[in-house]
Design a protein that fits this description.
The structure is a single chain. The chain is of the alpha/beta class. The chain is globular. The chain folds into two domains: 266 residues, Rossmann fold; 186 residues, Glycogen Phosphorylase B (Rossmann fold). It is 35% helix and 20% strand. Bound molecules: adenosine-5'-diphosphate and alpha-D-glucopyranose. Adenosine-5'-diphosphate binds next to helix 1, strand 16, strand 17 and helix 12.
C-alpha cells in the first residue's frame, strides 16, 4: 500500500475542532486523527486544520510557528498565527490556528458553561482553514468539515472561497446544532441571502450545522442506522425534514478503530498484554483494576466497565434510577465508570457509588491511561446510550475481549450482534427499551452468561475477531471525494 502520495493525488483538507493527541473531549478527536491517517494509506494527500487551544503544547507536537500572521476575512479581518507540522507519526499535514479566542481554559466552555461566542470561534476556524488550504498548503480538491464547528466551511466553499471543488460534512452528533444569533451574518461577513430558511436560518437564529447540511455536496454521519435515525422527528432535532429532502446526498459510514492505539497485545498502558489465543494477561488486568479501584479482588464476579462522557446522551440516568437500586444491590457484579460531564448526573452516580461501595467505583475527570486499563480489565462493557451516532468504545471493547452490553441504537446497533445461545452467535448483549428495568434485565442476562465459561469464551473470541479497522470506511469516504471531484471537474 502506498504511504507516500503520488503526484496528482486528491488533496483533502479536514476541518475539526478537536484532534487526538492535541485536544480531545470525545470520539471526534479519535476520528479526526485516524481517518486522515487511513486516507494517506489510500494515496490521498491530507491536511487537518484545528485550533491551537491553550492546552495545546506546540513544542511537544513539534509544530513550527509561521512567522507571518494570516489575515482571515470575516465581517472584519482577524489575524491568526499558524503552527504547522505533522500529525504525530504520520505524513498528514497539521495546522493549528492560534488566536486569542482559542486561548482560554476549556475547549467549548469553562466552569461557567459554554462560551457564548463559539459560533464566532469556529466560524474563524472554518474560514482560516480555507485560507490555509489555498495559501499555505498549496490547494485543496475537497474540504471535509466535521460537525457544526466546521459547518461554515461548506458554505464558503460553495461560494468559491478557498478554491476547492466541493465539500463533505460529517455529522458526529446531531444534538449539537451550533446555534448563533442573527448578528453572525454581519460579524462573519456571510452573504445576507443565506439568512433564510433555505439557508442557515433556523427558527429565527442561525445554525452552523444547518449551513453545512445545506451547502455541502455530501453529508455523512457515522453509522448507517444513525443516518436513518436523523431523518425521523425523534432523531432529527428539527432538521429531519431537511435531511429527508437531502436524503440523496446523505449516507452513513461507520467509524473505524486505530488498532495501533487500541490492541491488547501491544498496549503499553496495561499491566499485562494478551491476545485472543491466551487470555491470561486479561485476568491480571482485571485483578490490577479491582485493586486500583479498591473493589474486592474477585475473578468470579462479572466486572462491567464504562468510559464515557456523563451526559444525557449516554444513558446513566437509567442506572441511578431509584426504581432499580434494589435490583442493582442484589446483582453480584462490579461496575467501574470513568467519566466526566454533567454535574448533576455525576453527583447522582457518586451517591450511588457511596451507597454501594463494593459494587460501583466512579472515577471522574479525563484519564487516558485508566481508560485503557478499564478496557482491558473489565469483563463486560456497559453503554446504555439514549442515542449513539457511532460510539467508539464498544468497538475498542470488542477488540479487548470485553463483551459489550449496549442499547440497540445508532452505531451500537450496527456494530454489536446480540448473543444467541442456541445458535452460538453474537458478540454482545443488546437492550432495546430505554428503561431502567430493561437495562438491569440485560445486565443480569450478561452476568449469567459470564458464569457459563464456554458461552463466554465464544462471545469473547467472536468479538476479538471482528475487524473495524479504518481502511474499509476510509475507502467509502474516498469514493465520495472522487464523486465530488468528478461532478465538479469542469470547475
Ligand atoms: P463520544 O464521542 O460521544 O464521547 P465515543 O465512544 O465516540 O463517544 O468516544 C469517546 C472517546 O473519548 C473514546 O476514545 C473514549 O476512550 C474517550 N473518553 C471518554 N471519556 C473519557 C475519560 N473520562 N477519560 C479518558 N478517555 C475518555
Ligand atoms: C460523537 C458521537 C459518537 C461518535 C463520535 C465520533 O461524539 O457521540 O457516537 O462515535 O462522535 O464520530
Amino acid at each position: 500500500m502506498p504511504t507516500t502520495t503520488a503526484p496528482g493525488a486528491l488533496r483533502v483538507l479536514h476541518v475539526a475542532s478537536e484532534v487526538e493527541p492535541l485536544s480531545k473531549t470525545g470520539g471526534l478527536a479519535d476520528v479526526a486523527a485516524a481517518l486522515p491517517r487511513a486516507l494517506v494509506q489510500l494515496g490521498v494527500k491530507v491536511a487537518v486544520v484545528t485550533p491551537r487551544y491553550r492546552s495545546v503544547d506546540v513544542g511537544r507536537w513539534a509544530l513550527a510557528r509561521r512567522l507571518r500572521p494570516l489575515p482571515v476575512q470575516l465581517g472584519h479581518t482577524m489575524e491568526v498565527t499558524v503552527h504547522e507540522g505533522n500529525l504525530p507519526g504520520s505524513p498528514v499535514t497539521l495546522y493549528a490556528v492560534d488566536h486569542p479566542v482559542f486561548d482560554r481554559d476549556g475547549i467549548y466552555g469553562d466552569k461557567h458553561g459554554e462560551f457564548g461566542d463559539n459560533w464566532l470561534r469556529f466560524g474563524l476556524l472554518s474560514r482560516a482553514a480555507l485560507h490555509i488550504g489555498q495559501e499555505l498548503w498549496g490547494g485543496v480538491d475537497v474540504v471535509h468539515a466535521h460537525d457544526w464547528q466546521g459547518g461554515l466551511a461548506p458554505l464558503w466553499t460553495a461560494r468559491g472561497v478557498g478554491g476547492a471543488r466541493g465539500s463533505v460534512l460529517t455529522i458526529h452528533n446531531m444534538a449539537f446544532l451550533g446555534m448563533a444569533p442573527p448578528g453572525l451574518i454581519g460579524e462573519l461577513g456571510l452573504p445576507p441571502e443565506v439568512w433564510s430558511p433555505e439557508g442557515l436560518e433556523f427558527y429565527g437564529k442561525g445554525s452552523l450545522l444547518k449551513a453545512g447540511i445545506v451547502f455541502a455536496d455530501r453529508v455523512t454521519t457515522v453509522s448507517p442506522r444513525y443516518a436513518r435515525e436523523i431523518r425521523t422527528p425523534e432523531g432529527g432535532y428539527g432538521m429531519d425534514g431537511l435531511l429527508r429532502a437531502r436524503a440523496g446526498k446523505l449516507s452513513g459510514i461507520l467509524n473505524g478503530v486505530d488498532y495501533q492505539l487500541w490492541s491488547p497485545e501491544r498496549d503499553p498502558r496495561l499491566p499485562a498484554n494478551y491476545r485472543a489465543g491466551d487470555l491470561a494477561g486479561k485476568a491480571l488486568c482485571k485483578a490490577a483494576l479491582q485493586r486500583e479501584l479498591e473493589l474486592p479482588v474477585r475473578p468470579d464476579v462479572p466486572l462491567f466497565g464504562a468510559i464515557s462522557r456523563i451526559t444525557d446522551q449516554k444513558g446513566w440516568d437509567l442506572l441511578v434510577s431509584h426504581e432499580v437500586e434494589a435490583e442493582l444491590a442484589a446483582l453480584d457484579a462490579q461496575i467501574v465508570i470513568l467519566g466526566s460531564g454533567d454535574g448533576g448526573l455525576e453527583h447522582r452516580l457518586r451517591g450511588l457509588s457511596q451507597r454501594l461501595p463494593s459494587k460501583l467505583a466512579l472515577r471522574t475527570g479525563y484519564d487516558d491511561g485508566l481508560a485503557h486499563r478499564i478496557m482491558a480489565g473489565s469483563d463486560l462493557y456497559l453503554m446504555p446510550s439514549r442515542f449513539e451516532p457511532c460510539g467508539l468504545t464498544q468497538l475498542y471493547a470488542l477488540r479487548y475481549g470485553t463483551v459489550p452490553v449496549v442499547r440497540a441504537t445508532g452505531g451500537l446497533d450496527d456494530s454489536v450482534v446480540d448473543h444467541d445461545a442456541p445458535t452460538g452467535t453474537g458478540t454482545g448483549f443488546k437492550v432495546h427499551d430505554y428503561a431502567p428495568h430493561a437495562l438491569l434485565a440485560t445486565m443480569r442476562r450478561a452476568a449469567a452468561v459470564f458464569r457459563q465459561r464456554v458461552e463466554l469464551r465464544g462471545l469473547i473470541q467472536r468479538g476479538m475477531a471482528m475487524d473495524f479497522s479504518w481502511s474499509a470506511s476510509a475507502r467509502r469516504y474516498l469514493t465520495l471525494y472522487q464523486e465530488i471531484a468528478k461532478e465538479k471537474s469542469g470547475k
